[in-house]
Amino acid sequence: MRPIIQLFAKLLSPEAHRFHQALQDPQAAQQKVQKKIFECFVASEYGRSLGVRSLEDWHKIQIVNYADLEPWIERQKQSKTALLTSEPILFYEKTSGSRGPAKWIPYTRSLRRSFSQMFCIWAHDLITNGPKFFTGQVYFCISPQLTQPTQTDTGVQVGLADDAEYLDGWLQWILRPFLVAPAGLSRLRDPEAFKEQLCLALFQAEKLEIISIWSPSFLTVHLDYIQQHRQKLCDQLRYRVSPQRLALLSDPTTTWTEIWPHLKLISCWDSVNAADQAQALRSHFPGVMVQGKGLLATEAPMTVPLIAAQGSVPLLNEVFFEFEDSTGKIYLLHELEPATEYSIILSQKGGLYRYRMGDRVWMTHTYLNTPCLEFWGRDQMTSDLVGEKLHAAFVAQVLDHLNLGGTTFRTLVPVTQPQPHYVLLLNQADRGDAIAQRLDAALSESPHYEHARLLGQLAPAQVWVSPDVPDLVLRQKLQAGQKWGDIKHEVLATKPVETFRVFEFSSSSSGRVG
């Protein structure tokens, strides 16, 4: 298979070469893609409504977030005509929203091609500069349809079965023989059945070389499932694998690298809140390359990790970038300064123009004259432990609807140990156990939170009720170095605590319920 993999790299070479040429002159590359995106903008009903006709007036296009575009997207979903772009809408992908349960991101053929270009560049770099791949067997994250599949009223598809569907058809066709993708897996709606079938498929993939997922906890959950259900899996695999391989599964001392001896790469998030989880995978798989995803979102591919660059470079010939510093000043890609934090404003080929991503980045160094960007975290009003992306405005709506009665202090805190979960702190409330159940159900209105809960990446939300809560939270923030006068009460804490003991609850606390 090695010659076939090398042939695949040659097929990808022209796209990789064009990208590296663009990196040599980021200003020219960005001007070219900006012009192409602007042509789509002026041809759209949305663009015509804003009255901007000249590229020189780009700065007059309003900087927006999803809430600003939501009326347009809702109208577009009810219509057979695209409103935000001149291209037809292929499908919508749902992701967690800031002021509501979900955002609906429209995909066009051009936007899907942007994701394909990112994959081509990444794959070429891996084959050229990374581990030597011989089998090419790969698992791309398959998302179970844990809720009923949907379409818009006009019949447009909502959601994808697996990550390979982000790619153009010719790439899907080439990759199909190498994919670990059990038939019907994406249609399973029972989380335990999904985990069982995926673990069976992964164990049978003895020559697996690549695992591509989003959150590292997705893989950890399935490794835990294998450990806890060894005998059950052995019974089902008895006539499907060799006796030697079955013995590996039945032996609790077997290491993960013995189960997958050919594994060379795990691609996943590895920064900010995912850093510890990615490090745990490195411990589980010594000698296996665990590579960060770069900055990749439902809205657009933004950066691609390159071994040759020793970092992540922006996809500058597919996405137009603007960057806002802490003073509100806007910079272009070639104007960035090292060791400075910026918020990303992007324009892409699916109908999002000058769109605030809510992601903060840090310029680390340059590669071929182009700044390399490191993900520095979400904007201060977002919490993200395993990919659930809870926004403060959404959490505030949830808490308002819980009817917490006489409660005067409420804050939702992300906790990383012993398993990632959220704890709601209240200074007074009745029936904390009932509140915890309603809280978890309400947070599950967010698609990413629901997905993480159903797969076991997040434990159920919990509730602590104590009249001492306000003082204990204040004490914890003072110990963390905040000035008393600067401390603000947050409905959603965005910095996770390792364990809930950090708050050192007094004996008068009523304790955890729910």
Give a description of the structure.
This protein has 514 residues and is α/β, with parallel strands linked by helices. It is built from 16 helices and 21 strands. The chain has a 5-stranded antiparallel β-sheet with strand order 12-11-13-14-15. A 4-stranded mixed β-sheet has the order 2-1-5-4. Strands 3-6-7-8 form a 4-stranded parallel β-sheet, with helices on one face. Helix 7 packs across helix 8 (216-228). The longest helix is centred in the N-terminal third of the chain and has 23 residues, at 2-24.
Q: Specify the helix fraction band.
A: 25-40%
- From the alpha carbons, calculate the radius of gyration and give it in angstroms: 24 Å
Mean pLDDT score, rounded? 86
Low-confidence stretches: 483-487, 504-514
Work out the number of β strands: 21
Strand content: 15-25%
Give the SSE layout.
Layout: H1 2-24, H2 26-42, H3 45-50, H4 66-78, E1 91-96, E2 102-107, H5 109-129, E3 138-140, E4 150-151, E5 157-158, H6 169-175, H7 191-204, E6 210-212, H8 216-228, H9 230-237, H10 243-250, H11 256-259, E7 265-268, H12 275-284, E8 289-292, E9 303-306, E10 311-314, E11 320-324, E12 330-332, E13 341-347, E14 355-367, E15 370-378, E16 382-383, E17 390-391, H13 392-401, E18 410-415, E19 421-426, H14 432-443, H15 447-455, E20 462-465, H16 469-479, E21 512-513
Parallel strand pairs: 1-5, 3-6, 6-7, 7-8, 19-20
Antiparallel strand pairs: 1-2, 4-5, 9-10, 11-12, 11-13, 13-14, 14-15, 16-17, 18-19, 20-21
